[in-house]
């Protein structure tokens, strides 16, 4: 069975699967005036699925006013250039990842393990370069669908961010935490600095929210904060 083109996470917040049913996700936030903010753009071939997801919400590419990227990796920024062209929307990303988005090259990965060094030799971290119109900073509250707070969670990439939609109390973790066969940290070999990524993920346990959306894996809509805090407490002891 084909995955649904879009999944409601909270009022005005929708997950758009771009690979499988939830392997890689983008998000659409719909404002009161009907405009859309898109969070992440999947791999280079993802725009077709994003457009289909928007259509399922009764939206067209022209309704997208802003594209936010959680970080500069090919499975999150790969479709940014095409989506910017289709929508006319500007690209925003944390200032520490902006240079990577504009060069179309991922940050270097963590080479502190054997697997990390092997992965560094094998990976092709390139994606279509695209201009960045806005550089985000930690704690910034964007005028998006009632307020979207930027939460810096570096380590997966130097400028990785999570996002808190304050009106619906919905957290989007980016790759700070995966929900793949349970909650987990991003694998070390995929991170720029694995130890930093683990450490900064604990910020997410201190926030207030009711639902959590993941860029890898399905959302949690019941007991979300408790689930995240429990995972972080266990991972701190590991």
From TrEMBL:
Gene3D superfamilies: Ribonuclease Z/Hydroxyacylglutathione hydrolase-like
InterPro entries on file: Metallo-B-lactamas, NDM-1-like, RibonucZ/Hydroxyglut_hydro
Organism superkingdom: Bacteria
Keyword Hydrolase: yes
A Pfam match: Lactamase_B
MF (Gene Ontology): hydrolase activity
The UniProt record lists the keyword Hydrolase: yes
Keywords in alphabetical order: Hydrolase
Stretches assigned to the Metallo-beta-lactamase domain: 23-216
Protein name: Glyoxylase-like metal-dependent hydrolase (Beta-lactamase superfamily II)
Organism: Pseudonocardia cypriaca
Lineage: Bacteria, Bacillati, Actinomycetota, Actinomycetes, Pseudonocardiales
